[in-house]
Amino acid sequence: MVDISAIRAPLFVPANRPERFEKAAASGTDAVILDLEDAVAADAKDAARQALRKDFTDLPVIVRINAIGTPPHAADLQAIAALRPAAVILPKAEDAVSVQHVAEAAGVPVIALIESAHGLANSRQIAATPGVVRLAFGSIDFCADLGCNHLRDVLLPARFELVLASRLAGIAAPIDGVTAQLDDPEVTRDDAAHARALGMTGKLCIHPKQIPEVMRAFAPSAAEIDWARRVVASGDGAVSVDGAMVDEPVRIRARAILAQVRE
Q1: Domain coverage including residue 246
Q2: pLDDT at residue 255 is higher than 90
Q3: How many structural domains does the chain have?
């Protein structure tokens, strides 16, 4: 079974562009998202659905379907049930009942994409819904829904709420939304580092050159690994490491860092 919780830098590719599937899989990503939603024009939805396949790679293949209430949604669910991808991304996830319906109809794990005020308000219930394995943040759509600016300080409460909702539900930490700017890789890496600092463990990618930046941002640095090893080796009880107090909560963090190295 594919471990959806381990995915760090999944890459979107339009599902109506099958000639790009293999290239996407060879990009360095750890999962390919075949997109039936935003990347596909309305008159190309049927062709995109017919082009769905997962035999082009050994990587996890995920499909983003169209939102509940849209004309293509029912046909998308039928295609998912037939294809059986590693997971399905449900955009505009807004309530636990409808999300559970999608999980049952699709028959595969669901990544619930939170993109609206209702979705964020209900994120704790959505995260706890049977079949939901991860939340993701659709930050651009979220800002459009609320009429707010797409700025880190503005979106800080929303991102942290998704981290908290995931932790309370006992599922993997969430995946952050895309970085729209493509001409400066450092922007992507900085955005990913910010998401990691908040407790997120992945970031959606829309271009192959974003992948190495995201992977680097979510990997522990050499300094972090060295610190974690010395903390774990410090024994029990409260001791000093690098002039700072170390006790069991600090060791838990250190062990989590070393677990990432072993992944």
Answers
A1: 223-262
A2: no
A3: 2
